[in-house]
Design a protein that fits this description.
The protein contains five helices and nine strands, in the order αββαβββββααβαβ. It is an alpha+beta fold.
């Protein structure tokens, strides 16, 4: 393994096919879980706030290290009582910093960790994504994309290189495509009630540095494995 250029999965995990994909000998079959989120299996996170609950399906297959970090911090109570310190309507809501300044927060790895960009996940409306200070600087901070007004058609977005199913979501529901390949997507809101809470939080009055005048608080984050 120390000398290997590529280490594939086990036989039970379709390792031969994985290796063929890895070397570009077969075309990789992409699946876009955000397109049909109701049918996706995996852990569910419920961010309980003083404005209501945000229910989010997590994607450990596409972003294993990021999901492991978020789940562990949530179960340890790291986010309990933490505020959404930066809220910009028609853009996103950001939290996860215990200092409430946007300058703090640590990962379970004791330091910042690398980005996990997936060809299957995008910063569409409702996406849970890692906040950072540049490439490979992930810690504990995250944001949820709220923008629902994207002035481009599906055809224009697809022409820009986005897969058609994702281009359709962007065109119909909104999002922040300029953040793709810059911020790791690792979850997605799952229901209309959660989107209503997201929009309510995004609409709160803010002051300097886009910080809410009245605290928007994460009471706790519950994880259903």
């Amino acid at each position: 393994k120390e000398k290997a250029d590529y280490i594939t999965k086990t036989v039970e995990e379709d390792g031969i096919f994985d290796a063929l994909e890895g070397f570009g000998m077969v075309e990789k079959e992409l699946h876009f879980p955000q397109v049909d989120i109701e049918t996706v299996e995996g852990p569910l996170a419920t961010i309980k706030t003083n404005h209501g609950d945000l229910r989010i399906k997590l994607f450990p297959e596409q972003a294993p290290k990021t999901v492991a970090n978020f789940v562990a911090l949530s179960k340890d109570g790291y986010y309990d009582g933490v505020i959404f310190h930066r809220i910009i309507k028609d853009f996103m809501i950001q939290g996860g910093d215990p200092t409430g300044t946007g300058m703090g927060g640590e990962s379970i790895y004791g330091q910042t960790f690398e980005d996990e960009f997936s060809e299957e996940l995008y910063n569409v409306r409702g996406a849970l994504s890692m906040a950072n200070a540049g490439p490979n600087t992930n810690g504990s901070q995250f944001f949820i994309v709220q923008n629902q007004h994207l002035p481009y058609s599906k055809k224009e977005i697809a022409r820009g290189g986005w897969p058609e199913p994702i281009a359709e979501i962007y065109a119909e529901q909104g999002g922040t495509p300029h953040l793709d390949r810059r911020h790791t997507v690792f979850g997605q809101l799952v229901d209309a009630e959660s989107f209503a809470v997201l929009d309510a939080i995004a609409a709160v009055e803010t002051g300097a540095m886009d910080k809410p005048v009245e605290d928007v608080v994460i009471e706790t984050i519950e994880i259903e494995d």
